[in-house]
């Protein structure tokens, strides 16, 4: 009997140790979870806070508030109203609660906490309410920030000026905003039953799928393309499509994010403009050819008249007629050159080294450079290549260099600096001189006009800049100018970068 008593005591000791261990583990868990205990004894009107509950409230060790003091920790307004409401219902109706509330600690800090309350009744009367109190400030703030980001994304997605869509990896329209519906004529529910394959123009589908494969394979981060969709009424809608991919934290693809911009009107306008340009070009060819025939005939008739009736040439009007005839032929010659320029560029473009062509032109005008004691410094990057027709590039460089020499300032040595810079799609090279300069306020708008001259030079005809600008634009480029009278002029010529 004595032995059994000893064994029983040993078992109780072991059980006590286990309980102590469990209590320690539970205490650690509560500490890690920042979770404390609390109790309100309604009969005795006392409040109990565990150490962790006091720490959450940043109260002093041993502090136990009254019921009213405990309530006052809750931030006045929504949180305090809520805790009073749920506590009252727990006491009156036995409804347990689990709410998130904001408190102001003893040190004045505002933090978010989770309050869990459980009521205990005896003989139909609530004797006490107890529960847990947990500091959730960090997770609450992170959750709120995440919610804000989600809401921001939702609003950005829904109210974007362009169409936005989430596309599944299988091509389903998972989510679209109203702009997509407006663009394609489908409701969101109708689109959800389709894939993008179903409404993509067959000629655009292969390229789209190829780019998606590259996106999936990680060969590109995003892509952009112009493509055609069929709307609900089988009309073609031209769209500028931008696609990127969303992945989870592990890098696994989730879905595609597509942005759609309706460019149908622009495409139709472009097609219309191209057709008009084609008609204008044909018209210019016809006019140029027919007028040249008439002017040649007119010039020939004047010559024949002079030969057969020499006295005719003595008439005061005869020189005026021949001069007008020559001028008309010259004008038609220039216009014909412009027409030819527009039609021959496409098939004759080459990648040309800009530095080498400038050197080549310098050699061709060396006598002019030497006789005028002009310094030409070529600082163009030797690795810059432009898309151009050789004859046009030579003509462009030649015109700007000879202009700089022709309109050099008297009394100072002429200097011409040429340098280049790279832009996203262009190489820009500048020809900067210290010559007479141009009054751009007065002449800027007509600078590149036909027969426009700005200095009193006998050989100025006002054709060079007109032809040069036409050549630059025919090559897909543009020209800018900065100038100051008696200080000099800089022409900046943009030509397509051949390496892009």
Count, helices: 16
- Unreliable residue runs: none
- Shape, please? elongated
Residue fraction in strands: 25-35%
Name the average pLDDT: 87
Q: Which keywords apply here?
A:
five-stranded antiparallel beta sheet; 16 helices; elongated; 500 residues; alpha+beta
What's the quick description here?
It is built from 16 helices and 17 strands. The protein is an alpha+beta fold.
Description:
There is one protein chain. The protein is α+β, with helices and mostly antiparallel strands and 500 residues long. Helices cover 47% and strands 26% of the residues. Strands 2-1-5-4-3 form a five-stranded antiparallel β-sheet, with helices on both faces. The protein has a five-stranded antiparallel β-sheet with strand order 7-6-10-9-8, sandwiched between helices. A five-stranded mixed β-sheet has the order 12-14-15-17-16, with helices on one face. A hairpin with a 5-residue loop joins strand 9 (236-247) and strand 10 (253-262). Helix 10 (264-308) runs antiparallel to helix 11. The longest helix has 45 residues, at 264-308. The model has no long low-confidence stretch (mean pLDDT 87).
